[in-house]
Design brief:
Order of helices and strands: HHHHHHEEHEEEHEEEEHEEHH
Number of strands: 11
Helix content: 25-40%
Largest sheet: 6 strands, antiparallel
CATH superfamily of the largest domain: ATP-grasp fold, B domain
Distance between the termini: 46 Å
Amino acid sequence: MRKEIYSKSTKILYRLRLMLERVDHSWKKYVATKMSRDAANNLRKQVVAHTGKTVVDKKMRSEIKAYCAEVLGDASYWPWLAYYAELRGEFKKGWMPDDYYRFKFLPKMNPEKYMRFSEAKAIDHKLFNGAVVDPFFTRTNGQYYHKDGTVLKQEELDQILQEVNDEIIIKPDSGRGGQGIIFTHPDELHFEKLPKSTDLIFQPVVQQHPELQKLYPHSVNTLRVLTLLDDEGTIQVKFIIIRFGREGSRVDNASRGGGWVFVNIDGTVHPTAFDSIGLEIGKRHPDTGMLYSDLKLPFLPAIISLCKSVHHSFPYTRVIGWDIFVNEQEEPKIIEWNANNPFFDIIEARFGPFFSEYVLGDDNKR
């Protein structure tokens, strides 16, 4: 029988460490929640400044706070719903505040140990074999790997790149919002100048479907699909948007100056596009002049089928945002996926509620 190997003082230190970790977690959550609500208040002020009017008067604010207290258990959830109401022009019961979504709903639906897989983009081609844009190779923990897992030496990297005639894209493994992306030609790539602080994915620059090319030709315009694995084991598509670049940008992220437009499940496209805080930016693309409502999406059923299939293959996180690229042959591929904090707030405001069954449902769903 193994004897006790830890002293009393070591056990006390261990219990103290656990206590401090719990305090640290609670403090971080408190700070993140406060920052989130401050952001909502500032966003609401931006909307009011832009529109020159407010719909959230004292009466509506009281109504929103009472709703939050009764339905969500805490009146302090009100700032995000007030922001939603300013964008929508009315208050909608069933809305989920973004701070509730991030700090209560998602942690329950997407356990952290599985959610973290979506931040390791270097293994996407292993998780979803055949469904993603395959990399030429990746750099993980300072080591270069072929997509099949083989360790690559410098001369082997050079040989792979010699066979590539077109531009390539280099992505940071945990990048968000298009940040840190590098476009370069293989002849101009200097490995020693690449950032050392992150893992990297080296992929081909893909050619998109002609319909999406007409919308805006300088970025790959992706479709964001949010899926939910519900309590019965069915994959639901909660919403679909098209994201597009503007003003010469090579990325389609709204946070980098792009925009987005809502797609109905039948494939029709909402006539008006929106910016990164949910304000309208017109019915035509500002650069190409294309009417958003004229977009034809014959590949949408294939996108929906792909997202449902890959979510079924990774059921461990129940809410996932998929960024989908469509090639010239109408074949959809996953660019990346997000189970950490899938883009939600302004789409919920403009076109939701999308999770009213979890907001207005019984306690065990909240």
